Fold this protein.
Amino acid sequence: MPAALPAIIESWFAARGWRPRRHQMDMLAAGESGDHALLVAPTGAGKTLAGFLPSLADLIRNPTDLLHTLYVSPLKALAVDVRRNLLTPIEEMSLSISVETRTGDTPSDRKARQRVRPPHILLTTPESLSLLLSYPDAALLFSDLKTVIVDEVHAFATQKRGDLLNLSMARLQAINPALRRVALSATVADVDAYRAWLAPDGDIDTVTPVMGEAGAEPNVAILIPEGRVPWSGHSGKYAAKQVMAEIEARQTTLVFCNTRGLAELIFQELWSVNDANLPIAIHHGSLSIEARRKVESAMAAGKLRALVATASLDLGVDWGNVDCVIQMGAPKGSSRLLQRIGRANHRLDMASEAILIPGNRFEYLEARAALDAVEAGERDADDFRPGSLDVLAQHVMGLACAGPFRAEELLAEVQSATPYSALTREAFDHVLHFIEGGGYALRAYDRFKRLTQDADGTWRVSHPRFIQQHRLNAGIIVDQPALAVRFANGRKLGTVEEGFAAQLRPGDSFFFSGMALEVVRMDTSDLTVRATSKQARIPSWGGTRMAMSTRLADRVRAFLAEPGAWHRFPEDVREWLEMQKLRSALPQPGQLLVETFPHEGRHYLICYSFEGWNAHQSLGMLLTRRMESQGLMPLGFVSNDYALAVYGLKPVTDPASLFSADILDHEFVDWVEQSSLLKRAFRDVAVISGLIERQHPGKRKTGRQVTFSTDLIYDVLRKYQPDHLLLKAAWADARARMTDVGRLGDLIDRASQTMLHVTLDRVSPLAVPLLILIGREHVAQTAAEDALLMEAEALVAQAMRVD
């Protein structure tokens, strides 16, 4: 029998001239059957309402005073936004259903009250849910919980936050076996993989897949610059005037940038050509929460004509007045592009409008590939991996705070979480003993003895102070050491990382929050500034760069191998590729093209591998080390998402010897262990696992103090316990997140079988974008920029000469 809406909800739909969509009724049917469900539906299709519809219907039919539904979001702001949107229909139907949020920003008195008198629907984040489970009354609070809704599941399922959430859902399922799990997303490539992630015990058949109705095809265009597509750069700033013209012609425009630094740069470029003085603003994760909320409110009220933003606004934005999205630089993946396109119009029956601004010629190919992928309905693949042990350690400690446990029972519960389904008893025992004493190299220190095992085998927290310590320090997101940016009156603008702040002196100026700021003074925690009209620099932020997805890379490779498709490209891009074909070669799909040539007293090796910036950076480090051992006198390397250039004083005549498979066994391990990569990864896992505290009661450690503490412990463990659980976890992070060793391995494997080595007498057309990067890393002065521009023009002239 088909699901039926309560009459009051039917009347609400009818009063607005709406009807429930098919996928909304399918979600209601899954709810009434008690089935878990995964909804994949385009932005604007009413996903959030579809997720909550079974809960609203059940609360209308079966009123309760207990917590009924838990909604988990990857972003605090998304929970706040959903609460606002959910309250509107509840109030319009006059329903006695309470909805509240619980995040890190929720006042402590409200948090305490929520545990005693919870709302019917609680909106939270993975970290806040984990903390709720650390209280002894958690079993009582969640005893009657009917549904967990995971929104934007693609944003964190494959990451450590997804590990934590999956473990928390396993605990909730243990408290109430009848609990129903629901996940929502607009951009899932492998539906079955997400069904397995969502299901208890990974039982895919228990999760009903619900596919949303297709919306209007998006209207997406690539902006062709006035003049020629640039040879280099990745910001798209050359198109500032054209972007401003698009903003002037529309009601509200979202301008997306791939990094915080680029967002600050693009805002300044747009402001400098904002002749009409239109209200535009900036939004990214390093700005203060007050600044972000102010901008979000202005956007919701229709007071802004444009907002320059980063991934901080990729998810959950529901601003109906946005009529265009502009992507500055290449989108790096079709799923990310689709997510951002969906921010425009936010209605299923209206085509979203978007414009891509490629930063250079390679990025033009990538933008075209992304457009084709969106039109073909192709999504980026998601890399599911085993659950992280540092996250498991945090979770186990949190559950111990709620009460004693037996290892065998907790192991079974943990194994029911799909990321940990293959966890062995031996690995689990290592986690327990790590929490018990820090490992044998640290066992002499009482501050690491957080768990105690009683004579009957039961585990419990060793001292109440460790419970407080856990709740103060739990969390998966590890911020980089940072200083608060403040005006002299104490008003906080946001944060910059210590590494950038260390380069500044009083009197220096930088752009932040859309303003030019001059440094007044600096101490261990604050950077005091004042507004200035002086020339300023753009801040830099660390972190892993987004790499072009493998599926987009495959499409770009296909473009290079299909001259018959080049008529779709601008004339200068066609000319570039045709000259490359004439003077050198174009790599075929699966082939690794390597060029070597001399240029201005140096010898260059260019590797066109299309494996992304992170993998190329790692390979550059390895190749220069191997060239050093072969006496080739390397000087350095540069890379982008598409290729790697290594240069030195002697020519490389046998590139195959540099790419042999043992490079990952020898040079890779040696390089990672000697570099700061492993220490950085160790810092993160030490904080997540609870070994190192971020803050004490009433006092937060500075980033420098945390780094100093983790460096000391790292050195001790490397020397006395190299097989320590956290060193293994750090290695896993360094390989996957920092060096992209999976794509690096694919590259090395491909090299031995498919390398095409072309020896040239001068630079090739395809190599120009890379060589232009050399010398640009720290350019600050206009004169130096002009000199580099002249050098680039000479380089282009050489490369594009026919003879």
Remarks:
- The two ends are 77 Å apart (CA to CA).
- The longest helix spans residues 703-720.
